[in-house]
Amino acid sequence: MQLTFINGSPRGKKSNTARLMGHFLRGFMETPGNTSEIDYLTKHRQDINLLTETFAMAENVIIGFPLYVDAMPGSVKEFLEALAPLAGKKDNPALGFMIQCGFPETSHNRYVARYCEKFTQRMGCLSLGSILKGGCEGLDVQPDFLTDKYYAFFYMLGVEFGKTGKFDPAMLEKLARPEHLNAGNMTQIIPFINQALWDVQMENNGVLDKSFDKPLNP
Amino acid sequence: MNYLILNGNPSGGKGNIDRYIESLADKMRSAGHNTEVIVLRNLKIRPCIGCFNCWVKTPGTCSIRDNAAEVSRKYIAADHVIIASPLIMGFLSSLMKNTMDRNLPLVHPHLEEIDGEVHHKKRYDKYPIISFLLEKEACTDEDDIAIASDIFRREAINVRASLGFIHFTETPVQEVLHAIDVH
Q: What's the pLDDT tens digit per position in A24-45?
């Protein structure tokens, strides 16, 4: 089986998207004979046709991106628009998405996932579905016991996909947890993220006292 | 009341949305509304690169030097922003989406609970109402409208705005004018 992963993260190789999908691809390659390639939207923004050709030639494509304002980043939308001329072509690849967000709950990703499903139909591609994951901001500063769990899931999803060409629904469901936070989780997790992820960075940059600045006020 | 219409049509002369916006803005001004139209395709607005400098290095200020900050400044000063865009492959134009992504400095990185979900805290005291004015594609169906509208409702929550209306360019201008008055 052949798979092309198109990394739509504006952070390219250093993205949380790249980290997670690296484990998926490692799993995918466990099946002998499988081949994969990774391409980066950040590399091709000036010459998007190279990437649409890559898309057209592939057997399976997964487009990965971080959630930006409840949808795909604008740069990913540019690519989806560039694919329009291929809509309905007979040899289009099977298409899936990987959408991750910084919010701790996966539920935020469900809305754009519906868009992605409709986009796949519009292109006339066989749909692979979407891998959705919340809680992905700052994977490099999250505790290992959390990230190791995510990475193991992505690896196993990749292994399964490498064998069957499908995302395992039970695994997708487990990976998506927590879909929502309960009130107890919320009171624990919110102050932790605000402090450990954001205030620490502001403090290191010497701007914690400017945290709530309003520079665009008239 | 200050109104801002963002025209996210990437190609001038194509479709009806430019003319629709002009006619709407004229009528709004005649009705005494202070109305500004920004044609985004005439500006330089690069995509957000997710560096978070606007949150952790220069709070509230984006590091990319182009016209996006000017749009954000007018956006936050407005009482009601109308996001006008053709649907392209079922969603807002990438021109419009890039512009919306670049409004990230307007909110704060800290999270808080809103109706059982986690969202970002406000940075500013007041945020505009946001409404959507869309032009359908030949293939736009009920599904597309439902999917896009659900995303817009979410976006309003996330940018700490209240959602005004969602209308299409096939709606008579008079009706949109009325919707503006009631919000």
A: 999 999 999 999 999 999 998 8
**Set of chain A residues whose Cβ sits within 8 Å of the Cβ of B118:** 103-105, 181, 186, 189-190
Cα–Cα dist B7/A78, whole Å: 17
Q: Report how many domains make up chain B.
A: 1
Is the pLDDT assigned to residue B14 strictly greater than 80? no
Express each pLDDT in B75-125 by its tens digit.
Answer: 999 999 999 999 999 999 999 999 999 999 999 999 999 999 999 999 999
pLDDT tens digits along A45-74: 889 999 999 999 999 999 999 999 999 999
Asked if B148 lies within 8 A of A115 by C-beta distance, the reply is yes
pLDDT, position A218? 81
B168 interfaces chain A, CB cutoff of 8 Å: no
- pLDDT tens, A114-145? 999 999 999 999 999 999 999 998 888 888 99
Domain containing B9 equals 2-182
B-contacting residues in A 138-177 (Cβ below 8 Å):
none
Asked whether B146 and B87 are in contact (CB, 8 A), the reply is no
Q: Which residues are paired to A33 by β-bridges?
A: none
Cα A102 to chain centroid, rounded: 11
Q: How far B173 CA lies from chain A's nearest CA (Å)? A: 28
Q: Does B115 touch chain A (CB under 8 A)?
A: no
Is A66 within 8 Å of B110 when comparing Cβ atoms?
A: no
Residues in A touching B151 (Cβ below 8 Å): 70-71, 111-112, 115
Residue A39 at interface with chain B, using a CB cutoff of 8 Å:
no
pLDDT-derived band at B45 (thresholds 50, 70, 90) equals: very high
Residue of A214, A104, A113, A93 lying closest to A172 (CA atoms): A113
- Contact check, Cβ <8 Å, A215/B154: no
Domain segments of chain A as ranges: 2-180, 183-218
pLDDT at B15: 84
Return all residues near A122 (Cβ < 8 A) that are at least 6 apart. A87, B89, B90, B139
* CA nearest to A199 within chain B: B56
Q: Which of A107, A189, A201 sits opposite B117 (nearest CB)?
A: A107
**Fold topology of A2-180:** Rossmann fold (3.40.50)
Q: What is the pLDDT of residue A4?
A: 98
Residue with tokens 């290992």: A144
CB-CB contact of A137 with B104 (8 Å): no
